[in-house]
Amino acid sequence: MKKKSILLDVDEVICFSGYLELVNEFLHTNYTIDDFEEYYIDTVAIPDEQKPQFYQFIRTKDQYANRETLPGALDAIKSLSMYYDIYICSDCISTFDIDDSGRIFKNKFDYLHKLIPEDVIPVKNYIFTGAKNMCIADIQIDDLVSNLNPKIPIKILFPSYHNKNVSEDELKAKKIIRAGYDYHTGWQNVCKILLSPKILELNLDEINKRREQQ
What proportion of the chain, given as a percentage, has pLDDT over 90? Predict the structure, then answer.
């Protein structure tokens, strides 16, 4: 039987990219990820008058050189790959440096290629795009509600520092499953959801029927 497909985000799902470390290096601070509730850390941490200098500073850096792979991510992805075809679906565009965004594509690709074996997620399954709404699969895992495609039947919100306050009413209305509140155990919860008999027993016809009903 054909495997069901997963669209898998990278930043704040597989890893923290190292962006915060660059903020700390620039400001000479010791922020941790849990000090923030806003997705865009620089808008909160960097004073407006220092933003041009910060953006110039970060252009010279590899955000994935000091990345932090989230607890259990690789083992969970390996386990899921036995039952699902997994596709990386991630944005690489820097809104403040579009002309040089190619370096982010390369840095993210290099990190993923070194981390994930080819027989788990082949490089042909890497989708780098800012238009996730154009991508369809049976399942999607992302840390941003706005990235979860309504047309995908099983949508999982991965827990992160910036989405703890998303209401249960909103998730219910959008038919989104929350994989807990703590990113330390997020991958454990994803596996509990996607490796449960209830989900594994859904065949592709049932998945497609759910998609048509949304």
Answer: 76
